[in-house]
Design brief:
Helices cover about 45% and strands about 15% of the residues. It is of the alpha+beta class and about 220 residues long. The protein binds flavin mononucleotide.
Length: about 220
Amino acid sequence: MELEKAINERRSVRGYKKAPVSRETLEKVLKLATRAISAENTQPWEIAVLGGETLRNIAAANVQSFLAGEKPDLAESTFDGVYRQRRIGIGKKLFAAMDIAREDKEKRLWWSSRGFGFFDAPAAFIIYMDKSLGQESIFDIGCLAQNICLAAMEYGLGTCVEIQAVMYQQGLRRFLDIPEDKVPIMGVAIGYPDESFAANGVRSDRAELCENVRWYGFD
Ligand SMILES: Cc1cc2nc3c(=O)[nH]c(=O)nc-3n(C[C@H](O)[C@H](O)[C@H](O)COP(=O)(O)O)c2cc1C
């Protein structure tokens, strides 16, 4: 797939076909994605690839913790100001696509729970790193995650990067062999997109460059 097209057409996929993704295909995605840049080529990412019963068990435990109102080990950021506005912007688009009314608490809860359940994707990655590492390494993991999202498209796959996947860290540790000196940073759901799933048709907005970019030494 052409790079410009892939970057432009990538979107978070929150509804997947049931079709499994083969280990071979996931390996191809990871092989390509791990060409990502990293500070001093440290490649700080460690990746747990989840599928089958393990994924279903983790998804079920996550959803159960969320619906029981358990306090997550890792909280979502509270975004203020312009960040809050942008967050509300994408939320409104997704709720409109899914026909979820503002006051419909039950449906909103169901929608949130889907993220904790990896959106019923047939596979997922949990990306973790050594606790001793710092800012550069978290940045590197972001670069890897973006590469995963783009590389996946080469194989007809969709993805959703998600903090919800790693918010119940102790729950993850019950199922995965993640040593205590490592910390899960982010999850990525992956699978073949269900194009009939309304939220997958949402195109997120981007600020005009003049909002975020300052030029120095240019006319
Ligand atoms: C660090 C990070 C964490 C995210 N966490 C979640 C999440 O927990 N649940 C979710 O539905 N989407 C999550 N997303 C997806 C974003 O909401 C999405 O990328 C953003 O709204 C832009 O939409 P797009 O990916 O379709 O362009 C996350 C994305 C990033 C980069």
